[in-house]
């Protein structure tokens, strides 16, 4: 699986967590991320809308026709075959990326926000769980929840940047940003208990990724107002903070031995997604 490692280039928080994975598993996770990032880069490239649409449709066609001359596509199909990843999940990802290829992107309500977050990130969480050999259905759903939580964090971090690109996933209002962070925290919390269903050798890495990414939202919430948030520009987790969250993840690993499934009031949020996409079909 020799391709450019987008994981180390674009996803430093994930790459940090990936350090704690077995090498062979890291390579497979990196191949999955390379595929997802390649598709995402098409929507984000600095070119005309027509060019983006053509490039997207070309890549999608090459994927569907198994163009193994493209190593990103070839590696992805190896993962699909090895881990029985449903093509429905990948088509959901394609739908999410395609929805960004517009002159202006506006999400009008919570339902649209959650469906978008599932498509572009919940799918990645689910596929990553498949690569990590997760079998438990509740744990697979939790992988989706973790992906959604991380995407909500991304959206809250990138409001100013997204506005410059004519994308309005949430309103540029600090109360709305903090409310969305609170929503992400609910999804982070409900993802925790099922991590004990992940094979032991992979658990710590997921706990680290969860904590490090959640830290971004925590730092955003510490801002006092929109002006302070805007002046901070892109918020990231420092190396010292990553080390701290890694140490705290050791405590989380111990907690998993005692934690039980909790009933969080998120059924209404999941139901919003299920109004358009039946999640159980994706598991």
Integer-rounded radius of gyration: 18 Å
CATH first level of the domain at 87-281: which class?
Answer: Mainly Alpha
The number of distinct helices, counting runs of at least 4 residues, comes to 14
Helix content: 55-70%
- Give me the CATH superfamily of the domain at 87-281: Farnesyl Diphosphate Synthase
Mean pLDDT: 91
Question: How would a crystallographer describe the biggest sheet?
Answer: 2 strands, parallel
SSE run = HHHHHHEHHHEHHHHH
Quick description:
The protein has a domain at 87-281: Farnesyl Diphosphate Synthase, CATH 1.10.600. The chain is 69% helix and 1% strand. The protein contains 14 helices and two strands.
Account of the protein in words:
By secondary structure, the protein is mainly α. The chain has a domain at 87-281: Farnesyl Diphosphate Synthase. It contains 14 helices and 2 strands. The protein has helices at residues 6-10, 12-18, 23-44, 49-64, 71-83, 87-98, 110-131, 137-157, 159-164, 174-192, 200-221, 226-231, 239-255, 267-274, and strands at 105-106, 167-168. Strands 1-2 form a two-stranded parallel ribbon.
Key traits:
283 residues; mainly alpha; Farnesyl Diphosphate Synthase; two-stranded parallel sheet; 2 strands
